[in-house]
Specification:
The chain has helices at about 5-15, 25-30, 45-50, 75-90, 100-110, 130-135, 170-185, 195-205, 225-235, 245-250, 250-260, 265, 275-290, 295-310, 335-345, 350-370, and strands at about 20-25, 55-65, 95, 115-120, 140-145, 185-190, 210-215, 240, 315. The protein is an alpha/beta fold. It has one domain: Metal-dependent hydrolases (TIM Barrel, Alpha-Beta Barrel), CATH 3.20.20. Strands 1, 2, 3, 4, 5 and 6 form a six-stranded parallel β-sheet that branches. A three-stranded parallel β-sheet has the order 7-8-9. α2 (about 25-30) packs across α4 and α6 packs parallel to α7 (about 170-185). It is globular and about 50 Å long. The protein binds zinc ion.
């Protein structure tokens, strides 16, 4: 039976301790026109369900489909940033975009959930460092260097890289990392090839994160980190956000999801436009795939703590970027269930606070204090307030 949070865990959750390092939620606002300030019937995360789950901050990720938006990936990332700014304008008492520790503290004091703008994959930079500055001006504070598509300056963890792709980071890739250090943008190494991971770690003067990955020791999937990677990340002060995606957490769950994707019902979804298709896929996966017990996610978190240490593990759900979460962790109202499970498996309340968000927040604070301390919108992009 789904465990209810104990009074002590509930008291912790009431302080909104969760810092989720990766959620693709804003795509639903852009493509489906959903108001994420209301409780939404589909998808994983909105401000209402987040608050119920103790969410204090999350990285609002602009993922740009490299094929669908190959002609102008920057415009797509811009549209997603616009939607995030628009959400903040619509709900100024409940959600705020923040660019540094002082703004995060103010948002928390005012009872707002904080959004930190991120881009998943460096392709919207189109090989230009000035683009990094432009996105920074618009609020970018977390850049996942590479998604599943290899770039001429950084190799992804996926197979199939051509001869023109370096084994890790190219010289330009190293420049990107150094420039991010200068500006105060967190380097995110989920999706990176192992060599890219180690090159970036070596290049970065500041702690880095792997925002949404699991442990390779528990499931040998290229998106997961080896114990050596977990240790290297921790040695440099970084944090891994453990992903909620069953297919990354467990070989059996991966096979089960592949089985569902081979059914006629799943293939029939191909007729739908991409955003509708994704939502319908979430519903179908939840209906047809046998659930992955939440304990498996707890196993990954505890393994990462064993290897990397209690100060180097956090959460990166990948909500709204994945078809489903583990059982009992179906959406953003469920972080409390995870907290209770971790507490029952032996995490003290102070340690729980670190894992739910404190560790990830530490890296954000440290890195963003380095660059500009003023987070601002360029006027051309400032959306009109549309009411509270
Ligand atoms: Zn991802």
């Amino acid at each position: 039976m789904r465990p209810d949070p104990s009074p002590a865990v509930r008291a912790l959750l009431s302080r909104l301790p969760v810092f989720d390092a990766h959620a693709d939620t804003i795509g639903r606002a852009v493509d489906l026109g959903e108001d994420l300030g209301s409780r939404t019937e589909s998808g994983h995360l909105d401000l209402v369900r987040g608050r119920e789950g103790g969410l204090g901050a999350f990285v609002v990720v602009a993922w740009v489909d490299p094929e669908l938006f190959a002609a102008d990936p920057r415009a797509r990332a811009d549209a997603m940033f616009d939607a995030a700014h628009d959400l903040a304008c619509r709900h100024p008492t409940r959600f705020r975009l923040v660019g540094n520790a002082a703004e995060l503290d103010r948002a928390r004091a005012d009872g707002c959930i904080s959004g930190i703008l991120g881009i998943e994959g460096g392709h919207p930079l189109e090989g230009r460092l000035d683009r990094l500055h432009e996105f920074f001006e618009r609020g970018l504070r977390v850049l996942t260097l590479v998604w599943n598509n290899h770039l001429p300056w950084v190799r992804s963890c996926r197979d199939g890289a051509g001869a023109d792709i370096p084994p890790g980071l190219s010289e330009f890739g190293r420049e990107v990392v150094s420039e991010m250090n200068q500006l105060g943008i967190v380097v995110d190494l989920s999706h990176a090839a192992e060599q890219s991971f180690h090159d970036a770690l070596e290049q970065s003067a500041h702690p880095v994160i792997a925002s949404h990955s699991g442990c390779r020791a528990l499931h040998d999937h290229p998106r997961n980190l080896t114990d050596a990677q977990l240790r290297a990340l921790a040695d440099r002060g970084g944090v891994v956000g453990i992903v909620f995606h069953p297919g990354f957490l467990d070989a059996g769950a991966r096979a089960e999801e592949a089985r569902v994707r081979a059914t006629p019902a799943w293939r029939a979804l191909d007729a739908l436009p991409p955003a509708e298709r994704f939502l319908a896929g979430q519903a179908l996966m939840r209906r047809d795939a046998s659930p992955l017990p939440a304990a498996r996610l707890v196993d990954h978190i505890l393994h990462a703590i064993d290897v990397a240490g209690i100060d180097h593990v956090g959460l990166g759900s990948d909500f709204d970027g994945i078809d489903r979460g583990p059982e009992w962790l179906e959406d953003a109202s469920c972080y409390g269930t995870l907290a209770e499970l971790l507490h029952r498996r032996g995490l003290s309340l102070p340690d729980l606070e670190k894992v739910l968000g404190g560790n990830m927040e530490r890296v954000f604070r440290e890195v963003t204090s380095i660059g500009s301390d003023a987070f601002h919108l360029t006027p051309r992009n400032r959306p009109e307030p549309v009411g509270v």
